[in-house]
Amino acid sequence: MIDFTDASAVFRLVSVIWILLSVPTFLYLLKHPAPYGRYATKGWGAMIPDKLGWMVMELPVLLIVITHIVTNSFELTLPGRVAIAFFISHYIYRCLVYPLRIRTTGKQMPLTIAIAAIVFNLINGNLIGLGLTRFAEHGLGQFNVLAVTGVVLFITGLLMHIAADNHLVALRKLSGNGYEIPYGKIFSKISCPNYLGEIIEWVGFAMITNHIAAWSFAIWTAANLIPRALHHHRWYLTHFKDYPPERKALVPYLL
Ligand code: NDP
Description:
mainly alpha; two-stranded antiparallel sheet; 7 helices; binds NADPH dihydro-nicotinamide-adenine-dinucleotide phosphate
């Protein structure tokens, strides 16, 4: 039985429910790609500029987590502090650097998608913010093998993901406002190294903290990005007759 007077128990229950919700989302996204980027269509109502969409979708997470850090009293061990620094660095990149770098002139995304992402980010931001401050049991632990592996994975994932973003930004210069086949080391085995990098990052983050809120984010990231990578891969195969047949969608040689 859950003791509803115990805030930690309630927090864990909410986190578990949130994790379970990723399953139907994953199944839905396997069939229907989220309608932004190459799948943006007009049937989703009002549209907003792509860059603006990215900023307003992602900024809430950063602001919410910083608010929890500033307003909650908590003590963290070194891994906990490293995890928070990693999280904030990623989100500064995602909501302030990335939108300014992508080349999506004139492109739009449905407002509905931005609102859905904001709702997702409000929940995720509060879970991470509370999880890493008020409900950070034992200050988020010590640098054991799991946490050290997590640091290595987070940094590897971040570098992979930024390298892939750089590649796509450069490719857009060649393709006008359209799409080209990405070539080069990081794309030689898979279609979506940016997504693989992002998944590795958040698995690493979860391993550093070993906290349910961080694991829930890693699971949600995979639930969003595995289906999208499969759609992107199919899209490339359909649109480019010379698309490298040996390439996989997300995991070299496997998926
Ligand atoms: P995409 O790979 O679809 O697109 C990234 C950028 O590159 C876009 O500007 C896109 O243009 C452009 N682009 C992509 N492929 C090509 C190509 N072949 N030729 C030319 N330009 C290309 O990524 P998303 O937009 O889906 O996601 C952006 C970032 O957000 C990713 O790093 C992803 O990991 C992250 N993300 C994280 C989620 C999470 O749950 N943590 C969920 C969703 C995204 P255009 O927009 O015109 O297609």
